[in-house]
């Protein structure tokens, strides 16, 4: 019975919602690194990546605590060979990687602003991305570390400085915004959340997060006050969790889940099965040089960035309102590297 339960759990994890690739997934096993693996997001994310059948090697890196996390995760009965690395092992952790996921840095705490996060996390992301540029410049980069609106431009500028920048390879993970929008929309309208899709565009902080409920499926007409409340809740989802945890954490579990879903899509794309996801990338579809929208993920990363489609008047207003903050955040990231 124990082995049957284990098999059932593994089957669920490998096929979670639309999600983790099934055990029969085609294509080669991939090497994946999680940088910041001992943290609040890193630990559950490491476990979820160990459960992904497309992963054959899993490198777990952090400045402290990683051997214990790696030992724990390595006992899970899936094929990925897991190794832990401390601050002196970053190069080895990265060599040969196909996908590098970066949740490293400090989480948001009550009272912290995005500026507070920037002061700490900007340097961490820059230094880790520099190592990626040296040791696995062709890898896909999934950036989770906040503020994503600035850390993705930081990553891009650092790789440009090194001469190894490829806009197809760098993605800010905004999947949690999509996960929240789907959940809140389904709950409000009595829908099966597994059947729901809601694109979320813009950025990954406050008003820069714009759920396109006019494009949601199944289509449900909602009163304006309900629409505004759902939009606001999606934008403030991270704050909702920070406040609920009362200073003892941020949205670590849901973020790890969302990051694992997005990483799975990246791996499927690498292995020849294209996937469509919302993610924050270099973009020309608006005035912002980086913008989250639907993209096609394929064998080289971002294969196509899709236009926004038809927006409601309310969404057009939201798009206009986000631009000053989004552009300022992007410029702040660019200047951090250029002035460094």
UniProtKB/TrEMBL annotation:
Domain named Lactate/malate dehydrogenase C-terminal: residues: 174-337
GO terms classed as biological process: malate metabolic process; tricarboxylic acid cycle
Residues annotated to bind substrate: 108, 114, 146, 180
Sequence ranges assigned to domain Lactate/malate dehydrogenase N-terminal in this UniProt record: 31-172
Keyword Transmembrane helix (UniProt): no
Matches recorded under InterPro entries: L-lactate/malate_DH, Lactate/malate_DH_C, Lactate/malate_DH_N, Lactate_DH/Glyco_Ohase_4_C, Malate_DH_AS, Malate_DH_type1, NAD(P)-bd_dom_sf
Positions with a binding annotation for NAD(+): 36-42, 62, 121, 144-146, 255
Pfam families: Ldh_1_C, Ldh_1_N
Gene3D superfamilies, alphabetized: Lactate dehydrogenase/glycoside hydrolase, family 4, C-terminal (3.90.110.10), NAD(P)-binding Rossmann-like Domain (3.40.50.720)
Coiled coil start-end: none
Catalysed reactions, semicolon-separated: (S)-malate + NAD(+) = oxaloacetate + NADH + H(+)
Top EC category: oxidoreductase
Protein name stated in the entry: Malate dehydrogenase
Lineage: Eukaryota, Viridiplantae, Chlorophyta, core chlorophytes, Chlorophyceae
């Amino acid at each position: 019975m124990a082995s049957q339960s284990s098999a059932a759990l593994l089957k669920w994890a490998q096929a979670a919602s639309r999600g983790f690739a099934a055990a029969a997934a085609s294509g080669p096993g991939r090497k994946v690194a999680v940088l910041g693996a001992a943290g609040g997001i890193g630990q559950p994310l490491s476990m979820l990546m160990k459960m992904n059948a497309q992963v054959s090697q899993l490198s777990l890196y952090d400045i402290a605590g990683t051997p214990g996390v790696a030992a724990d995760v390595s006992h899970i009965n899936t094929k990925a060979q897991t190794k832990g690395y401390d601050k002196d092992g970053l190069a080895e952790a990265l060599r040969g990687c196909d996908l590098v996921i970066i949740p490293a840095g400090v989480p948001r705490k009550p009272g912290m602003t995005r500026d507070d996060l920037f002061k700490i996390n900007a340097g961490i992301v820059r230094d880790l991305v520099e190592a990626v540029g040296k040791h696995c410049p062709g890898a896909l980069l999934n950036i989770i570390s906040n503020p994503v609106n600035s850390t993705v431009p930081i990553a891009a500028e650092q790789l440009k400085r090194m001469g190894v920048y490829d806009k197809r390879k760098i993605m800010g993970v905004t999947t949690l915004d999509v996960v929240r929008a789907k959940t809140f929309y389904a709950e409000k309208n009595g829908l099966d959340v597994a059947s729901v899709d809601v694109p979320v565009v813009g950025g990954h902080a406050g008003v820069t997060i714009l759920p396109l409920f006019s494009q949601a499926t199944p289509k449900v007409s909602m009163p304006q006050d309900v629409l505004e409340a759902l939009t606001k809740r999606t934008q403030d989802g991270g704050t909702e969790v920070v406040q609920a945890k009362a200073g003892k954490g941020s949205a670590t579990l849901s973020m790890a889940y969302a990051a694992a879903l997005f990483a799975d899509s990246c791996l499927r794309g690498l292995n020849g099965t294209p996937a469509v996801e919302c993610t924050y990338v270099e973009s020309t579809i608006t005035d912002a040089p980086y913008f989250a929208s639907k993209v096609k993920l394929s064998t080289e990363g971002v294969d196509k960035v899709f236009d926004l489609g038809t927006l409601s008047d309310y969404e057009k207003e939201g798009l206009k309102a986000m631009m000053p903050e989004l552009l300022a955040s992007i410029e702040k990231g660019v200047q951090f590297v250029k002035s460094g």
